Inverse folding.
């Protein structure tokens, strides 16, 4: 045991010699295993609940439009589209389309949002002009992502097998039968700019 | 030997238990999830966006 009177102990020795640290590393003298496991169990339940509550809060539209970059640009444009109001009264909120629903991908997206925190802190798109200047690039990110996952977020609600082709226009029926049902294309390949305004085509990174 | 290793007081054990259960383990758990998420993000930057889930 470290000599308490020694004044020139290194940092590690001081940490290792700390009475709380030593208590943590030793078996309990005063508390039973039953009590300690119960305590860990209760703390675990509380933690799990708090974690999921926080994760769900970070997945609400209220949270998304907490930053004016989202509230003043893309959120305004969503209003007036069919994903905002429609006959059936079912609507899509930001995370329905922009946050993957699978847990691992959702956590990866949440961590990727650290880049958005950087953008907010340093005002990367804090004016409409700055936003419009990078919109083609930002839109392309989402199109690439949705193209790669074959429009998974769209298909969380929209199912080809539930489409009533009798209620679609002839042009849509032809496109869906020839390209969607054959697996050649998915939603985003044709339906771009349906929830927000399209960038100018000339400004797109893929425009030759 | 028994005299060198002083027995922890009950208050110190209770305090250790609280610090571990409400602070240290939750921070480690959140840190583990954050590292997991960052690892996938970095992987997707290199490999391109993921395919259908």
């Amino acid at each position: 045991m470290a000599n308490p009177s020694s004044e020139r102990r290194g940092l590690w020795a001081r940490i290792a010699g700390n009475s709380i640290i030593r208590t943590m590393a030793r078996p309990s003298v005063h508390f039973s295993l039953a009590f300690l496991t119960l305590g860990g169990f209760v703390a675990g339940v509380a933690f799990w609940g708090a974690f999921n509550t926080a994760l769900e809060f970070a997945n609400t539209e209220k949270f998304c439009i907490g930053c004016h970059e989202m509230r003043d640009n893309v959120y305004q444009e969503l209003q007036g589209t069919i994903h905002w109001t429609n006959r059936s009264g079912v609507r899509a909120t930001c995370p329905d389309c922009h946050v993957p629903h699978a847990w691992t991908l959702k956590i990866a997206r949440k961590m990727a949002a650290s880049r958005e925190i950087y953008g907010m802190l340093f005002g990367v798109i804090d004016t409409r002009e700055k936003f419009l200047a990078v919109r083609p690039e930002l839109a392309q990110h989402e199109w690439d992502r949705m193209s790669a996952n074959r429009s998974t977020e769209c298909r969380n609600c929209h199912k080809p097998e539930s489409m009533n082709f009798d209620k679609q226009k002839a042009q849509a029926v032809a496109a869906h039968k020839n390209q969607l049902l054959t697996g050649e294309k998915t939603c985003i390949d044709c339906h771009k700019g349906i929830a927000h305004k399209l960038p100018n085509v000339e400004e797109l990174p893929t425009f030759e | 030997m028994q005299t060198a290793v002083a027995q922890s007081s009950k208050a110190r054990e209770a305090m250790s238990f609280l610090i571990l259960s409400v602070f240290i383990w939750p921070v480690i758990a959140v840190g583990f999830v954050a590292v997991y998420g960052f690892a996938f993000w970095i992987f997707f930057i290199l490999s391109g966006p993921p395919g259908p889930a």
About this structure: The first helix of chain B runs from residue 10 to 47. Chain B touches chain A through 33 residues (CB under 8 Å). The radius of gyration of chain B is 21 Å. The CA atoms of residues 42 and 48 of chain B lie 10 Å apart.
